[in-house]
Amino acid sequence: MPPEREILGILLPVGGGDPIPLLKTELILGRRPICDIRLDFNNVSGKHCALQLISGIWHIRDLGSTNGTSVNGSRLTGLHAIMPDDEVGVATHLFTISYVPTGPEAVVSTHKVLDNNMQEERRRHSLMELAGLDTDGDKPSRAARPKTAPSTIERLSAQEGEFDDTVPKDYQEAAKPRPTQEEVDEEFLRMIEEEVKKVN
Questions:
Q1: pLDDT, tens digit (0-9, with 9 covering 90-100), for 36-51
Q2: Which residues are 37's β-sheet partners?
Q3: Fewer CB atoms near the end CB (10 Å): N or C, the chain?
């Protein structure tokens, strides 16, 4: 009777299905019969992705599949560590992995912190996008810092302030409130009306 093989983890289909035992430290997932874990779905590539157990932590990488491999909704571009709470996507098929990480504690805890930050950033961006706000284009621009020191410093009178230090004019100009889009549009329409009047 052959000896029982050690189970290094279990791949669990999200939403139900048979658990898949992970019996080797490197496994190929895909649609081909020669794959270690066969996923017989039309949108799964022949050799879709690979699972590797490195220093007690499972990692996954895409093998150039058509429909991609993801971890927690983020499409992979290289090797990525996966923890028991992570959700792995093979094309549109979702799995979680059940195992006890045995890597160095620092590696495990660092991965948790980075992954939580990544999820929080993705959640913030997706909520902003759902609200129709472009998070990259709408960042307020900071006032440009002058490249040279001001030639003169304007002093405030005693009535204007208790301090002798004053703000240089360059900084005062930069600190002025910028016009709203509505004000810019109104100014633009006013200029067009003036041009039309000149022509007539």
A1: 999 999 999 999 999 9
A2: 29
A3: N
